[in-house]
Amino acid sequence: MLYVKAPAKINLTLDVLYKRPDQYHEVEMIMTTVDLADRIGLESRADGQIKIVSTDNFVPDDQRNFAYQAAELLKNTYGIKEGVTISIEKQIPIAAGLAGGSSDAAATLRGLNELWNLNLTMDELAEHGAKIGSDVSFCVYGGTALATGRGEKIKELSAPPTCWVVLAKPKIGVSTADVYGGLNIEGLQHPNTSEMIKAIETEDYELMCNSLGNVLETVTFNLHPEVITIKEQMQRFGADAVLMSGSGPTVFGLVENEARVSRIYNGLRGFCEEVYVVRMLGERNPLA
Ligand code: ATP
User: Fold this and answer.
1) Residue 134 known to bind ligand
2) What is the reported pLDDT for 64?
3) Strand 164-169 versus strand 274-279 pairing type
4) Which of 16, 102, 133, 215 is the most exposed place for a label (fewest CB within 10 A)?
5) Where does the GHMP kinase C-terminal domain lie (predicted)?
6) How many domains is the chain partitioned into structurally?
7) Catalytic site includes residue 19
């Protein structure tokens, strides 16, 4: 069995520039991987089939699973006769804005590249990833990056300033399509993406905190007001800066002072079941 890690991501920024003629939104976002990860196990099958086994009943076990789609894509493109059993040990909350499904697909691409001796480059794997979903390309590389286009054009960035990240996920799932559907592009308050890039390049923690921004926040807040409560609580317990990740509902807080982390964690645990303390993984590195 070959094991591959599939880490979650958070958005330090998420901006929508306009809606394209092909109906996708042109985005600009800075994403970074964190050390909350699913574990993907890959085992070759002689019968040529693709099977999904998961510890989580909410993970689809058929073609709807992004990891299944990743395996099918490589199998069909490169005429692979073998099949594969994909075991997904789920740690990343589902439909949470943390790209769990996309990361499982990316890990499957990286893992099968090895298992099936395909010798594909990361860029080639990322190109395949984009056919499955907009966030899959980023997840192939991991680390920290500026993503543009519909999210599939990746420009590598250096590691953000070091800090703790507290993640809190309210007990609701959010449909990314619904959130984008509710977005009014005219009235958006755009985050300052270039200031965030500067913060990362100059390792300026304060500037990073001040440059966090996500245009989807107000849409998700309107759909699910409990997400605002989590954000307010995270601020009240002493996080330096707080933002919703992706289309939500997960909210993350950045914290520099280690002593404050447990206060925030314990405070949030009072009314939110899923709270995690994680670190950013920083730079891109071979995750497979
Ligand atoms: P993003 O941040 O990219 O918008 P997300 O974290 O909000 O993604 P996912 O956890 O990827 O959302 O789940 C979105 C949907 O994808 C779920 O409703 C689920 O049915 C489906 N899905 C497909 N494959 C997977 C997978 N391997 N793990 C979890 N969900 C999956």
Assistant:
1) no
2) 97
3) antiparallel
4) 16
5) 196-272
6) 2
7) no
Phi first, then psi: give them for residue 3, nearest 5 degrees: -105, 140
- 0.90 exceeded by pTM: yes
Q: What percentage of the chain has pLDDT greater than the value 70? A: 99
What would the two tokens of residue 138 be?
């980023």
Q: What is the DSSP letter of 191?
A: -
Q: Using the structure block, give the residue that is written with the tokens 């953000």.
A: 160
Domain enclosing residue 230, as ranges: 164-279
The protein residue with its alpha carbon nearest to ligand 1, atom 13, reads 95
**pLDDT of res. 214:** 98
Task: Please provide the distance, in angstroms rounded to a whole number, between the alpha carbons at the two ends of the chain.
Answer: 13
Cβ(11)–Cβ(243) under 8 Å?
Answer: yes
Cα 30 from chain centre? 11
Please indicate, yes or no, if residue 285 is contained in any of the structural domains: no
- Boundary-marking domain end, from 101, 128, 157: 157
Distance 257 CA to ligand 1 centre (A): 32
Is 135 marked active-site?
A: yes
Domain membership flag for residue 284: no
pLDDT digits (tens, 9 = 90+) for 213-234: 999 999 999 999 999 999 999 9
CA-to-CA distance for 100 and 95, rounded, in angstroms? 8
Instruction: Find the CATH number of the domain harbouring 88.
Output: 3.30.230.10
Give CA angle at 27 (22, 28), nearest 5°: 155
The answer to the question of residue 102 being in a domain is yes
CB 118 within 8 A of CB 68: no
What does the alpha-carbon distance between residue 46 and residue 43 come to, in Å, rounded to a whole number?
10
